[in-house]
Amino acid sequence: MLSALTFRRRFSDLSEQEILALAVSSEEDDARIYRSFAERLRPDFPASAAVFDGMAVEEDGHRQRLIDLHRTRFGEVIPLIRREHVAGFYARRPVWLAQSLSLDAMRGEAAAMERTAQEFYQRAAARTQDAETRKLLGDLAAAEAGHENHARRLEETHLSPDRREEEDQTARRQFILTWVQPGLAGLMDGSVSTLAPIFATAFATHDTWTTFLVGSAASVGAGISMGFTEAAHDDGVLSGRGSPLKRGLASGVMTTVGGLGHALPYLIPDFWTATTIAMIVVFVELWAIAWIQNRFMETPFLRAALQVVVGGALVFAAGALIGGG
């Protein structure tokens, strides 16, 4: 890490030729990122893919103009200098992250890419005293601003209001299928299924530490089981539910969180204080489940609340009766 920082140069130390070479490589990188976005989106969001294709072509055009300018001023050989070689230069996310970004995240990332590039060149132009360098940096800032305007024109061309709404609905549906649905199932399982063992142990032993250990074991075990089950039973190819890894992660984590919510209060040594707080947490968890069902699954809130609260109350009562008996 230190060796990498040692060999990074300050932007103020770059020559005009190196600044131009840096701009060429940056435009090339941005075009590659936009094309990766387009390929990721093409199967489900063809209109948005066309927008990113157009943005990549625009980057290619700017890169070619910069290469022509370099050829005129400095000759054919362009120095090899990239963002990571310059201290303080704006960074870009790795291309492979496109596989995990949502449609809205890609749109936001593209806007941020153009904005940060523009701002960087503007600040750099303000710091230099050389007229030619100032003009060069100003031109680059203007080019980046033009990219953002061009992106808007491309969206107007390829994304009609109806098409954009359709793609937004598809993205929301995919988010629900990949993250919300398995996460909700996990939260329900973790919150409800662990009630019986936790409160049975609590009322049977009146030992907060033992209850915490049982609750933690039940929560983690249920999380691992739910995560593997969700990931293994559907690869997402035919169902369209998305990556099994993402679904398994959402289900496993939320199952564990649901159980630990009412296990953690038993870290408090006083039994009745811990139990009271745990019961309050259970109430909050169950209402949170009902809200998520209403918000994302379009289940009427009262019906969702009735189902979850009644089910949770029955499991709690079973645990308390078994433990108290």
Structure description:
It is a single chain. Helices cover 77% and strands 1% of the residues. It has 325 residues and is an all-alpha fold. The chain folds into 2 domains: 158 residues, Ferritin, core subunit, four-helix bundle (Ferritin, Up-down Bundle); 151 residues, no CATH class. The protein is elongated and about 90 Å long. 34% of the residues are buried. The N terminus is likely disordered.
List how many beta strands DSSP finds. Answer: 2
Helix count from the secondary structure assignment: 11
User: How would you characterize the largest beta sheet?
Assistant: 2 strands, parallel
Order of helices and strands: HEHHEHHHHHHHH
Count the domains: 2
Radius of gyration: 28 Å
Assigned CATH architecture of the largest domain: Up-down Bundle
List the strand order in the largest sheet: 1-2
User: What is the top-level CATH class of the largest domain?
Assistant: Mainly Alpha
What is the arithmetic mean of pLDDT?
79
Helix content: over 70%
CATH fourth-tier homologous superfamily of the largest domain: Ferritin, core subunit, four-helix bundle
Task: Choose one word for the global shape.
Answer: elongated
Q: What is the fold-level CATH name, i.e. the topology of the largest domain?
A: Ferritin
Distance from N terminus to C terminus (CA atoms, Å) equals 61 Å
Unreliably modeled segments: 1-6
Class from secondary-structure proportions: mainly alpha
Strand content: under 5%
